[in-house]
Here is the input.
Amino acid sequence: MTTAANTQPPARRRDDARDDVVLEARDVTKHFEVRSKQGTRVVRAVEGVDLQLHRGEIVAMVGESGSGKTTVARMLSLYYPVTSGEILLQGRPVKSVWGKAAKDYYAQVQLLFQDPFASLNSLKSIRHILGRAVKIHQPRLGKREVEQKVLGLLEKVALLPAEQYIDKFPHELSGGQRQRIVIARALAVEPQVMLGDEPISMLDVSIRLDVLNLLTRLRDEDGVALLYITHDIASARYIADRINVMYAGEMVEGGPSESVIHTPQHPYTRLLLDSSPNPDRGIESDQGSLFDEVGDLGEPPSLIEPPRGCRFNPRCPFAMEICTTDKPERTEVSPGHWARCHLHTVGGAEQLRAERIQFGVPVEQVEAELAAVTGDDEPHADVETSTVALESQTTDRIGGPQP
Amino acid sequence: MSRRDVGEVLLEVKDLTVDYLTLKGAVRAVDTANFTLRRGEILGVAGESGSGKSTLTTAILRLQRPPAVTAGGQVIYHHRDGAATDLVPRTDKELRSIRWDQLAIVMQSAMDALNPVKRLGEQFRDVLQLHNPKMSKDESNTRAQDLLAMSGIPRDRVNSYPHEMSGGMRQRSLISLALACDPDLVIMDEPTTAVDVVMQRTIMSQVLRLQRRLGFAIIFVTHDLSLLLELSDRLAIMYAGKIVEIGPASELYATPRHPYTAALRDSFPPLFAPLKVMSGIPGAAPDLMDLPPGCAFAPRCPRAMPICHEQEPAFIEVAPAVRAACLLNQPEVVAGQPTIGASLPVAGEAPSSDDPEEASLALDTTPRDPGGWS
Here is the structure.
């Protein structure tokens, strides 16, 4: 439902917040060693990722499962040590993950977890859950002051009246309210950065927008920087100022949200956009549902032996010789919008604008394979004719024998 | 407007009611659900968690286990030869001949639905030989390979264990398994929530292709309304155990006649359309143990009138092929009621107050590429 038309559009960064890099990942790589009977193998989960989070900015990281987006978040939260590369907090490299250094780090960088049903201790009251976070980072506060802080946090996340919530237990709250508590707990230390790994995917669709709006408010009012990790590119566009796209452990494209959505510069981003549900396309346009034009879109490669060159090349309809040998360089296409794709260096990037791009196995081939199995050359021979007949019959069939 | 060829009536659900028996009394999880499904039709069922959509599907298949009990209603299945069976009073033994042969289900989590210690081929053989005991091992093996190939899985995967396959492949093999006995109706309960959008599109395209060739009907359950709008012929929207609106997908999208449908539709940020500030639905879904009087959605409804908190709306035909349960569609009730906000758009009119164009705050001032691909 729309609200007052004079409110700020959701995804607009404050202009004064440009050069304040709070958290940065510089060329970070994560390799996991997997030992098995065949010997030790290396999973190249994240490869050379650069990421900057500015003050008062929401950066989204999108990609399919296994693309390494969570691994990047875990490195940024010091949960995994980096294999190579650096993490910098306010320009200073983060060295230790232990003791005081870690505590100082978490005083500025906080995590938002995915599942609010798993991330809150069900035996403790909200007062305890939030109060503990306050006390750990501000041990000198008295009981009264802690309570004031907790009430302030509840107000911040719009759980009002705060007095009514402070003595509740997590089981008394709905999923959306619990996630607000999770956000309030992260805010208890007044962090500069929040790392949100799918913070809304466990919530009911009807309350997701409220949580997203809350996160944009924290950005605008408090200047908190947020890394928003999601597989849902539409929600990324809704709140993020910039969108980064990950594929098979590499960041393949990044730029201002609207620019990435409307003019994707990497074939994979295009595939992601083409695949995302979009009722406008299916219902309001004459094109009909895009399901009809899709064959088999393929799957991401194994990260144990990723493809040489560009990791997307086995699935890319534009793959050239060079794509199988050389890793594409980062090319800036428009201000702040870059992609790693040889189309931008060799030429041919205009193909990314084509009305339709055939990814993966074409539909004709899939149909043929299917015909070979079902033994039916014509798919349901009477479809063409009956659709016409159906137009007139539509109301009739549904109005049919209703109970 | 329909996108598919549909045939005779396949399933009639009449006043279906499912209760969960608890120590504190019965909780009504599905309340007098009514709808008709035709052969080859795709019906989408959408709603929040706890709205009863999964309970509805298990009740149709008679798969529910205590404490869930079917408290009333009928599920009338029309066989190919014209005979009709009410599934509700049938015993498990009688149902066995109908399940899988005629009614199949694709579960949400492939990892839980497949047996982890059996090769895929054996799991297919189990089903095939149970329903056709004369089938030899070789025949069933060939059939299993055919079925896998139907959903785009290489034939040699018949010798794989579930853990050797990707999540997308496992989900596809479940679809193959559901189709093993050539059913007339396949119920899909969130079959693609565990896979990413690219795989989701591959899987659903293949399902639609198979559906065109084999002609089965689908009841597709998910919370992802945006996917359903692209996919289904008709949509049923559930709230607090009730179907609150049902009708052609394009109708429900363009002209929702229940405020909950409109709110659910507007809970998804647009992919390409100009961005605007959106808000979800205030409040939370009601406790089924303690439903509010009148319309269950009234406490969250932006258009609730005083009477909504007293009188339960009837589920009536509000436009050709559309039924909804909202007092705003009953002019005789609305008359004299102070309304908050506008009334619902009338049939044929474009959506009024929540028209994205009207209320939009264009972020992107550049028009979309004229020959645009989007």
Notes: The CA atoms of residues 22 and 67 of chain B lie 7 Å apart. The first strand of chain B starts at residue 9 and ends at 22.
